[in-house]
Amino acid sequence: MRVFLSMWRMDPRICPYVIPSRFYGIYHLGHIIIDLPLITCLVERWRSETHTIHVPVGEMTITLQDVAIILGLRIDEPAVLGTCVLDVAGLCGELLGVIPPNEALKGSTIFIRWLFQQSSTPAPDADEVVL
Question: pTM for the full model?
Fold first, then answer.
């Protein structure tokens, strides 16, 4: 996963749109080295009854604010709640101009590899509407 995302370089023309949306932190997650032994240790110490991680000095809880700071996401807006039923393939066709094949979909999820192949580099003459 890390190798794939580190190959995905964002087109500089897209950055002015991604940075204000505060999703730039998610883009940078692909460039973080994941410490698998640390994650394994935390999973082993997780107590689902209290939603805490037990460490030698006491208990630790991961809060929404912790996740927001780590990922660079904003949490100061109203929450998005509820369910949504939509035609993912149709929406992709409308927004990207190409409909994903069934192999690129799993429920309402589109595989990132397919998205990368379709939209990693906008056309050189792409206008602001396309970007």
Answer: 0.40
Q: Given CA atoms 85, 90, 95, 101 in this order, what sign does their dihedral have?
A: positive
Strands 58-60 and 105-106 come out as unpaired
Residue 102 CB-half CA count within 13 A: 0
User: In the chain, what is the straight-line distance between the N-terminal and C-terminal CA atoms, in Å?
Assistant: 26
SS3 128: coil
Mean pLDDT throughout 67-88?
77
Q: How confident is the model at residue 2 (pLDDT cuts 50, 70, 90)?
A: very low
C-alpha span between 69 and 3 (Å, rounded): 24
Q: Cβ contacts of residue 44 below 8 Å, gap of 6+?
A: none
